[in-house]
Amino acid sequence: MRFQHMVVAVDETDAGRSAVRTGLDLAARANARLTIMTVTPAAAHVRVPHGGGGHGDSAILDSLAHWLEHDLASASPELPVQLGCAHGIPSVEICRFAEDRRADLLILGRKQRTAAVRMLVGDTADAVARRSQVASLYVPPRVGPLQKILVALDGTERGFVVFRAAAALADAIGAGIQPVIIEPAAVGDAAPVPSSRTLALLGQLERLATPSDRDALARAAGPAKSLEEMLIVRRGEPVTQLLEAAEAEAADIVAIGNRRGGPPGPVEGGSIARRFAHLAPEALLAVPL
């Protein structure tokens, strides 16, 4: 997997601004193209093609360019940046836009909202996570440079897709990766021992890790450590343990597998990735499974 084209989806909010600045930084570090896009409601009486091209697009793009003026002026002059727009339901059109343009990474700002507000006004980031076929990075407000990725794995071949995506991003931007696996809590006074999942994961890492993967692991854990020493094993409730691991490891991004689909319902009853996204202060890399 290579990160050659990144798409940032914005509205003119602080969350959108944070996503733009993250996109500019990551695209420059990865030597990738960057497209910054926005979505406006499609007028009921105008038939607008998917992905833009409708009447008034030039005014929308001019407004977007004006809003981005300061950030684009401070970006690297060698970074290729394009602007785009689409019309319709934001979560649907953001995903369509990224997929149509073969984006390798979709970046959105993340807004902290209560459960009640999410039920009333919805949550675009959550809706995108349920639809996107593109790896998506959800950025909290005022995020700093992203240098360390905590990778949540489950020991399965399918879950190793998360490691591959996180390692590719780390290689592209010069970041480190730190793998973690969450096991069930120990019962009684029994001494914790590695489960078959953990042993399988170590076998996968030994067999499948490329030299660039090992470089990214070494950037996070140190070159003298073995893969077994690099793997963090925690026990307990997954979301709680991921939150604690991210804080303990000073991670900037947490990468996690995200199964697409499911109803919009309460986030609190959804997947681990959905619940984590609304609790974590770190950026979240959601890798579709």
3D architecture notes:
The chain is globular. It is of the alpha/beta class. A 10-stranded mixed beta sheet has the order 3-2-1-4-5-10-9-6-7-8, sandwiched between helices. The protein has 2 domains: 5-139, HUPs (Rossmann fold), CATH 3.40.50; 148-251, Rossmann fold (3-Layer(aba) Sandwich), CATH 3.40.50. The protein contains 11 helices and 10 strands. The model is unreliable at 44-55 and 114-122 (pLDDT under 50).
Protein topology:
Elements: E1 5-9, H1 14-30, E2 33-40, H2 57-74, E3 81-87, H3 90-100, E4 105-109, H4 115-121, H5 124-131, E5 136-139, E6 148-153, H6 160-173, E7 176-183, H7 196-208, H8 211-221, H9 227-230, E8 232-235, H10 238-248, E9 253-258, H11 272-277, E10 283-288
Parallel strand pairs: 1-2, 1-4, 2-3, 4-5, 6-7, 6-9, 7-8, 9-10
Antiparallel strand pairs: 5-10
Helix pairs in contact: 1-6, 3-5, 6-8
Quickly describe the structure.
The protein has helices at residues 14-30, 57-74, 90-100, 115-121, 124-131, 160-173, 196-208, 211-221, 227-230, 238-248, 272-277; strands at 5-9, 33-40, 81-87, 105-109, 136-139, 148-153, 176-183, 232-235, 253-258, 283-288. The protein has 289 residues and is an alpha/beta fold.
